[in-house]
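Morning. Coffee machine broken again, so started the prediction first thing and wrote up yesterday's gels while waiting. Chain of 87 residues, entered below exactly as on the submission form.
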Amino acid sequence: MSLGDVLIFIFVGLVAGFLASRVVFGKGRGWLWDIIIGILGAVLGGWLAGLVHFSIGYGIFGQIVIAFVGAVILLLIWRLLFHRGRK
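Came back before lunch.
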């Protein structure tokens, strides 16, 4: 894995994590947490996409979409587990 691949992975994680945080919580969680959320979302989204044999393409846009979907699912589960009763 080259340095360019790592930077693209971090960028995809940042964009997907930020967008997912905005959708679920209404604001970003900070750049570091957005990257972590996005990377974990990419892993989850890629795994789920593989289970249902779904492919949106291999471009950066497709990677962001799959990471975004995985991050939203991850954050919804997080919110269900840890934000009960909070307003």
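Residues 3-82 form one domain. Going to sketch it on the whiteboard this afternoon.
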